[in-house]
Design goal:
By secondary structure, this protein is an alpha+beta fold. It contains six helices and 20 strands. A hairpin with a 5-residue loop joins β1 and β2. It is elongated.
Length: 384
């Protein structure tokens, strides 16, 4: 039997320890990369707000405004464009936002900062602080901006609540900057849940909150609070023929923000899988073209080099005679029915970049299943 000396045993133990430490460090580093990033936002009930059950409605309004309004900012955006005569003119815009951490990250709407070449933030009064865009997601109309210069006073953090636990009739409060008027408070109730609204790029935003709390231009991006002082939505849209508040406002659920803000802070964008196609709903084409199905999604155009093109899917084509041939009709993905473009969005959002899906199509009267590897496409606003 081969015997080891004490010195050899110590050397083996030392080498084994170093090797184990190295393995642990590598595993820890890899696992940290694989785990989704967590934002440092607060979810605790803010101090200074009494239990709504033991406070009057007036007291609750006063405490929420006094405690949380310092964390609601006015976002000023400036972009520059040439007029008909070639003169560069500044175009001003404004909205609201919520401070979500001590690093100076601010949650707002994407449409508030879209196209902005210069950003400034005010905390009430005339003093402005320079800010920059951290990241934006046009599909959910949410964005994160960050203060470049910080105020001397500590920031007031807006805590995030849970938009999955809301009820119609529940009291809500909105703080924002309607028509540029700093930190205006309006109150109301939740008028409806799971409302269908769309971002400016046409993408559906799931489960919007409807409220009768007054929301006007300038409120966009500001917080919608529950009576405990937790943000449960981001005020985003109004339904009004006149363009002013008609008591029908909509907020993006805060749980959507909690899902995407960490990725926006980390990488500046949300990576969503795409097929690389532009589409038309079959239902809207019934009077224009005869199709073998009553619902589904017709592939209109295909992005060269995209997932659909690589998988051999077909869009509209023109024959030598000048006739137009209809492309493939998507009727399902992974055996889940696709009746329209909204359902196509919903199913794709369940998958990640790099996933392979089976796309069920109709082509020349035949039903086929085509494997497609999902990737990102450069033009995310126009293509699915």
């Amino acid at each position: 039997m081969y015997r080891l000396s004490a010195r050899q045993i110590l050397m083996i133990a030392l080498i084994s320890g170093l090797f184990a430490a190295g393995v642990v460090a590598v595993v820890d580093r890899v696992s940290n990369r694989l785990q989704p990033a967590r934002a440092a936002y607060s979810e605790s009930t803010p101090s200074g707000i009494s239990d709504p059950a033991s406070a009057s409605d007036e007291q609750n309004n006063i405490e929420i405004y006094r405690t949380l309004s310092p964390g609601v900012v006015n976002v000023h955006s400036t972009s520059y464009a040439r007029d008909f005569f070639g003169v560069v003119e500044p175009q001003e815009g404004s909205g609201s936002g919520s401070v979500i951490d001590q690093s100076g990250n601010i949650l707002t709407n994407y449409h508030v900062i879209e196209g902005a070449q210069k950003l400034a933030v005010s905390f009430g009064g005339q003093k402005n602080y320079a800010a920059k865009v951290v990241g934006g997601d046009p599909d959910t109309d949410l964005a994160v901006i960050k203060l470049i210069e910080m105020p001397k006073e500590p920031l007031t953090i807006i805590p995030l609540g849970d938009s999955d636990k809301l009820a119609v009739g529940q009291k809500v409060l909105a703080i924002g900057n309607p028509f540029g008027m700093d930190r205006t408070l309006t109150t109301g109730v939740i008028s409806g849940l799971q409302r269908p609204i769309r971002a400016r790029n046409g993408r559906p935003i799931e489960g919007a909150i409807q409220t009768d709390a007054s929301i006007n231009p300038g409120n966009s991006g500001g917080p919608l609070f529950d009576s405990h002082g937790r943000m449960i939505g981001i005020n985003s849209q109004i339904l009004s023929p006149s363009g002013a508040s008609a008591g029908v406002g909509f907020a993006v659920p805060v749980n959507i923000a909690k899902r995407i803000v960490p990725e926006l802070v980390r990488s500046g964008e949300i990576r969503r899988p795409k097929l690389g196609i532009s589409t038309r709903d079959v239902e809207t084409l019934k009077t224009q073209v005869e199709l073998p199905v009553s619902d589904g999604v017709l592939i209109w155009q295909i992005a060269p080099g995209g997932p659909a093109a690589n998988a051999g899917l077909r869009g509209l084509t023109q024959t030598e005679n000048g006739d137009v041939e209809v492309g493939d009709v998507i009727v399902g993905i992974d055996s889940e029915k696709v009746a329209n473009t909204d359902e196509l969005y919903r199913i794709l959002n369940k998958h990640g970049v790099g996933d392979q899906v089976q796309v069920q199509i109709l082509r020349n009267g035949r039903r086929l299943s085509v494997p497609v590897r999902l990737t990102e496409t450069p033009d995310t606003r126009r293509r699915q």
